[in-house]
Structures are given as structure tokens and as C-alpha cells.
Amino acid sequence: xxxxxxxxxxNPQARLVRQAVDIIRKGGIVVYPTDSAYAIGCRxxxxxxxxxxxxxxxxxxxxNFTLVCRDLSEISVYAQTDNSHYRLLKAHTPGAxxxxxxxxxxxxxxxxxxKRKTIGIRxxxxxxxxxxxxxxxxxxxxxxxxxxxxxxxxxxxxEIRQLLxxxxxxxxxxxxxxxxxxxxxxxxxxxxxxVRKGLADSxxxx
Length: 206
Hints:
Layout: E1 3-6, H1 14-25, E2 30-33, E3 38-43, H2 47-57, E4 66-68, H3 72-78, E5 79-80, H4 83-92, E6 97-103, E7 118-122, H5 127-136, E8 140-144, H6 157-164, E9 170-173, E10 183-186, E11 193-196
Parallel strand pairs: 1-9, 2-9, 4-7, 6-10
Antiparallel strand pairs: 2-3, 3-8, 4-8, 5-6, 6-7, 10-11
């Protein structure tokens, strides 16, 4: 049976944030709001929880998870960026973008694209997500909460509880946060490539 925390969208309650992060640190799987949709996540090094997320979403072993980070300094630990990429990241974060970058050695191999050695990185513009990341002190290994055979993410925390409460450890109710996916930008090479158009403006990268 999962815990269900109602956290204020604009002023997250510190006590609930601490309790939420304690659950995550103990290996819990959390559903939490971002600036584009609800995400499902766990700690980076927790392979057992990652495998459970794969099962919940019916993902194969080739699915690439995203590291949801709190700021640019955290990105630099897990991804390689040159000056031009850094300027673009600084101008477009936080926001509803996922950036594909070359991974550093800090990223476990099972999280990288097996051939390209890349990792998806994002910094959400959502006070609850930011509060969780600040308290946790490391990125959340995450994926958009889309159930098998569905095209759109789940948006209703109460429906999420009804369907998944026995498979999750924590659901954070942060209100409605939309159902449109992030815009994905590939920064592996010198010229950015728009991989997927989503909520955030992609025109500057085209």
C-alpha cells in the first residue's frame, strides 16, 4: 500500500518533502509531478526499483531512463558538456526539455544508451520536484508515467493511487501538471537535433 502525500504546488511543506525523500532513500518508488507530466522515479543506484518501474510500464531493457536533476552543476557530474552546449542548457533550464548528452563515468552502464553511451538529463521547473531533488541531494532516475497500451501520461493522482497503490511506495499529489511530454534535444554532436517536439518550444534548436 503506497503512501499518499498532498504537497502544495507552490510552497511544498518541508516536513512532507523530508518524509518523501526518506521513502526514496530506503528504496521506494515515487510518482511525483514535473512541469510536463507526472513521472515515476527512484534512486539512481537502485536496480531493484528500476526493474519494478520497467514492470509497471512494461518497458523493455532498451528503454532509456532520464536523470532528473536540480541544477546545472548536478548535470555536469553525470553528463559531458562543452561551452556551446552549456550556454544553451543555461538558457533553457529549468524547463520542459530533456537533453541527450554523452554520459560521464558517474552514470551506471545499465542507464546509458548501450551503443552511444548517452544519457537523458532534465531540470524540471516545478517547485515540488525541485524540493524533492534538493532534499535528496542527487538526481532521480525517472520515466514519464505512461501505463502499458496508453499514449498519454497519467494526470490524476487519485486515479494513480486507485490503479497502482500496491505497486508504488509513494504518490505525491501536486495537482494537475499536464499530460504533454518534454521536448527532447540531442546534444551528442555539435549541432543540436530535435528528437521529439513536446511541451517546450523547439524552434530555437531547429
